[in-house]
Write a structure and sequence with these properties.
Layout (H helix, E strand, L loop, with lengths): L4 H13 L19 E5 L4 H11 L9 E7 L13 E5 L13 H8 L5 E4 L6 H9 L4 E5 L4 H4 L2 E3 L7 H12 L4
Parallel strand pairs: 1-2, 1-4, 2-3, 4-5, 5-6
Helix pairs in contact: 2-6
């Protein structure tokens, strides 16, 4: 996964000067109850959106769960509309030179709900959602492996091009304790 140098420098700068608290240790067991609030970062490409649709089920949201979605405004048509889910989208003019979200109102909108889990479904690097994952104070963060994944996520998944993404999505479902 290719990560631009300006983003790596920004992440390094933020990690030096921002007090990033240590995330709480999490325990995953069969006796766990799972999470009840999840925010998904959705892929921008149409091909990836088709596969991500398997997991997100925006047209049939899970009852009893608080679900939120974040994606680029351009990729929103790839996902079904539903009045039962919180859909937050950003536009290209909401991004700064580093490709991260500069709109505090947008970031505050994401932070307005205390999510228990974050799932980044981008298999390729996405600067806006990567920095958002870094800045959000959520105990369980799941994303795909990259050079900077250890700074962003509590659990990283290996994406091999010769395996099906559905397997990774089933693993995410089990980690979150989702009852589908």
């Amino acid at each position: 996964m290719e990560i631009p140098i300006q983003f790596r420098l920004l992440l390094f700068w933020k990690s030096i000067f921002n007090e990033q608290h240590n995330p709480p240790q999490i325990k995953i067991s069969k006796e766990g109850k799972g999470v009840k609030s999840i925010i998904f970062f959705l892929p921008e490409k149409k091909e990836d959106a088709k596969i991500a649709h398997y997991l997100i089920k925006a047209d049939e949201p899970l009852s009893g769960y608080t679900i939120g979605y974040v994606c680029n405004e351009k990729s929103k048509p790839y996902y079904p509309n539903s009045i039962n889910v919180k859909f937050i989208s950003y536009k290209d003019n909401d991004l700064n030179y580093f490709g991260v979200i500069k709109s505090e109102a947008l970031v505050d909108q994401v932070k307005s709900i205390q999510y228990e889990a974050l799932v980044d479904l981008n298999t390729k690097f996405c600067a806006p959602t990567s920095m958002l994952a870094y800045e959000l104070d959520i105990p369980l963060k799941i994303g795909f492996n990259s050079l900077i994944a250890d700074k962003l996520y509590t659990i990283t998944l290996e994406h091999k091009h010769n395996t099906f993404l559905e397997y990774n999505f089933q693993l995410i479902e089990r980690l979150l304790g989702l009852e589908l």
